[in-house]
Specification:
Radius of gyration: 28 Å
Number of strands: 13
Largest sheet: 7 strands, mixed
Bound molecules: adenosine-5'-triphosphate, magnesium ion
Helix content: 40-55%
Oligomer: single chain
Structural class: alpha+beta
Number of helices: 20
Shape: elongated
Length: 405
């Protein structure tokens, strides 16, 4: 059973019990656009306890907000009771909700294109907010007064950018102006939620449009504590984002916008966004290696192998290529490196070292800086194919120990 069929089953069952039930929100928008919805949300006048009695497998995720998860077939769908949101605290979350009519439920939603209902059994659209017209005109428009809607929930400003960029829509003029006025308030939203929106904006194929909208709405310099972009940098980042391949990881997207920072700067910026350590490390590695790749600095065979074994070679090459194209310095070096990397067999990326710490200890070199230096040099020589046997590596090691005194 597809997710849509599951949603239809839920809707029929609610109606059999005398309730109103409709598809709501993003899935309606996506279906009307001929896109496949990420998930299907059902809205109903049945209150949560009633939903739980009608369906066997339910989970009360946000019963106080009127949301129940219903498991059906292999799917888990959100079934939400029509509601209005109570007053907002700190521009983040409503403090309470009240159950109400579909009309009022539509009016609490953020944008007209997200505020429609659909009867999937008849394909009838229930539109109290002018969503169909805005879909046809391809605009993202707040339901109600934009300033008021952004003042009660600041995250909506980023959502407007995300939907506009992802759908290729414009942000309606008053909605746009309201974002510009309230943009600094986005910093009251938690870094995690800002990061999640940024990831959605910057990993989409439309990321350059998303970045342009972040700059035009002036949200951009309030997103990451301690990081701002001037005109020239903002413009350059947009061109880098546009030059990246269609699919990018979160780390590569952040590397592209933080490309002007040094490595500790990238890690601080990622930490400010509460990125995972893995993403933060990958982003700073990509910034460093992207630049090295662009400048043709990855020359030694050992360095090519280190890049390959990092697991980020393809993205470092992609960033290097994007930087080369944006800075107009030609990508011959990048392509040569890509070819060379492709010619190295995976088992040669990180072969076991010919000599190890134990061999050094046997020569009475204790662990420490010198010990590390010798091992690193020997391994680098091995990866460079300068040392091809254990005997040769041992001889070099003995030589180095003797030379080093
Ligand atoms: P996506 O395709 O990215 O999931 P979506 O439109 O389904 O987009 P969700 O975040 O899943 O967005 O939210 C579902 C619906 O809930 C939205 O379409 C909108 O009607 C409503 N909604 C979500 N967040 C807000 C918000 N911050 N303010 C008002 N309404 C919201
Ligand atoms: Mg959704």
């Amino acid at each position: 059973m597809s997710a849509l069929e599951s949603a239809c089953t839920i809707i029929k069952r609610l109606r059999d019990h005398g309730h109103i039930a409709l598809l709501a929100g993003g899935c309606v928008r996506d279906r009307l656009l001929g896109r496949t919805p990420a998930d299907y949300d059902v809205a109903t006048d049945a209150p949560p306890p009633r939903i739980c009695r009608i369906f066997r497998r339910t989970k009360q995720v946000g019963a106080q907000f009127g949301v129940v998860l219903v498991r059906i077939g292999g799917d888990e769908l959100e079934v939400a009771t029509f509601r209005t949101d109570g007053s907002y605290r700190d521009g983040r979350r409503p403090e309470s909700v009240e159950f109400t009519t579909p009309q009022e439920d539509a009016r609490r939603r953020d944008f007209t294109i997200n505020g429609m209902f659909l009867d999937p059994l008849t394909d009838e659209v229930v539109d109290y907010v002018g969503g169909q017209q805005d879909l046809a005109n391809r605009v993202v428009r707040c339901i109600g007064t934009p300033e008021a809607r952004f003042a009660e929930d600041h995250l909506r400003m980023l959502r407007a950018v995300r939907f506009a960029a992802r759908l290729g829509f414009a942000i309606e003029a008053e909605t746009h102006a309201a974002i510009q006025r309230l943009a600094p308030r986005i910093s009251a939203i938690s870094a995690e939620r800002i990061r999640m929106e940024l990831e959605l904006i910057l990993t989409a194929a439309t990321r350059a449009d998303g970045w342009r909208l972040l700059r035009e709405t002036e949200l951009v310099n309030h997103l990451v504590a301690g990081v701002t972009w001037d005109e020239a940098n903002g413009e350059r980042c947009g061109r880098i984002l546009a030059a990246l391949p269609e699919r990018v990881s979160d780390a590569l997207a952040f590397a592209a916008i933080f490309v002007e920072l040094d490595e500790p700067g990238v890690e601080r910026a990622c930490a400010a966004l509460r990125c995972s350590t893995a993403v933060s490390r990958a982003a700073s590695y990509l910034v460093r290696m992207g630049r090295s790749v662009q400048r043709g600095e990855v020359r030694e065979l050992a360095d090519v192998k280190f890049l390959l074994v990092s697991g980020h070679a393809d993205e470092a090459l992609a960033l290097g290529r994007a930087l080369a194209s944006v800075d107009g310095c030609g990508s011959a070096d990048v392509e040569a490196l890509a070819q060379r990397a492709a010619g190295i067999a995976p088992e040669d990326y990180a072969p076991p070292p010919f000599v190890t710490g134990e061999d050094l200890i046997a020569l009475k070199v204790a662990p420490g800086p010198r010990y590390r230096e010798i091992l690193d040099a020997l391994y680098r020589a091995q990866l460079n194919d300068e040392l091809t046997t254990r005997a040769a590596a041992e001889a070099r090691m003995k030589q180095m120990v003797a030379d080093g005194g």
